């Protein structure tokens, strides 16, 4: 289970450049505009982003990064331990 108690319909990413609450707000605001995203939660201390999505398919990572990179961030898949 991930940072926020991931369940079906959720995906978790690492965002190494996220350092503060302002970063969290910029990131969550941006990714909420990605097709299929229902809810976004970010944690700067954990450097994690969780997206809850509609339907059976997670939002495309390239689409997530398309809105994050102009802000100076990049989402990366979380490696399971």
Automatic annotation (TrEMBL):
Residues 9-76 form the HMA domain. It comes from the Bacteria. GO terms for molecular function: metal ion binding. Coiled coil: none annotated. Transmembrane segments: none annotated. CDD domains: HMA. This is Copper chaperone CopZ. It comes from Alkalispirochaeta americana. The lineage of its organism: Bacteria, Pseudomonadati, Spirochaetota, Spirochaetia, Spirochaetales.
């Amino acid at each position: 289970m991930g940072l926020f108690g991931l369940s079906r319909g959720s995906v978790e990413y690492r965002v190494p450049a996220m350092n503060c609450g302002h970063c969290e707000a910029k990131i969550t605001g941006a990714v909420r505009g990605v097709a299929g995203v229902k809810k976004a939660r970010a944690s700067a201390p954990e450097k994690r982003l969780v997206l809850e999505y509609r339907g059976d398919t997670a939002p495309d990572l390239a689409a997530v990064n398309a809105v994050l990179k102009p802000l100076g961030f990049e989402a990366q898949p979380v490696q399971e331990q």
